[in-house]
Amino acid sequence: MSLINRPNPVPHLQRLYQTNTHVPIYLKKGGDKFVMTAFVGLMAVGLTGSLYGATKMARGVKN
After folding, report:
1. CA 21, CA 24: separation in Å to the nearest integer?
2. Mean pLDDT over residues 48-61, rounded?
3. Domain count, the chain
4. 58 has pLDDT over 90
5. Within a domain: residue 3?
6. Mean pLDDT, the chain, as a whole number?
7. How many whole angstroms separate alpha carbon 47 and alpha carbon 53?
8. Is residue 16 part of a domain?
9. Which phi and psi angles does 62 have, rounded to 5°?
């Protein structure tokens, strides 16, 4: 019965999220900074590729 004997993480997480810091809520847990960095990086690459393709189309360049 490992489900019954597990420690309750809620008090620890409440203290973590309710501390008065200037860090955004989505970056307060441990690995969230890596996930956000990867997401923003992929979003920047996609936006750059889209803008590059749109400018090529506007100029009428083929290949």
Report:
1. 8
2. 94
3. 1
4. yes
5. no
6. 86
7. 10
8. yes
9. -110, 120
* Contact assessment for residue 7 and residue 16, using Cβ atoms and an 8 Å cutoff: no
- Judge contact between 27 and 33, C-beta under 8 A: yes
How many other β-carbons are positioned within 10 Å of the β-carbon of residue 33? Answer: 13
Structure tokens given for 13: 């997480």
Supply the pLDDT for residue 42. 97
Alpha carbon of residue 53 to chain centroid: 26
Whole-number pLDDT of residue 20: 81
Tell me the per-residue pLDDT of 7-36, one tens digit each, with 9 for 90 and over: 888 898 888 888 888 888 777 777 778 888
Give the chain's radius of gyration (CA, Å): 22
Residue 17 lies in a domain: yes
Count of CB atoms within 10 A of residue 36's CB?
A: 13
Q: Which two tokens stand for residue 23?
A: 């860090």
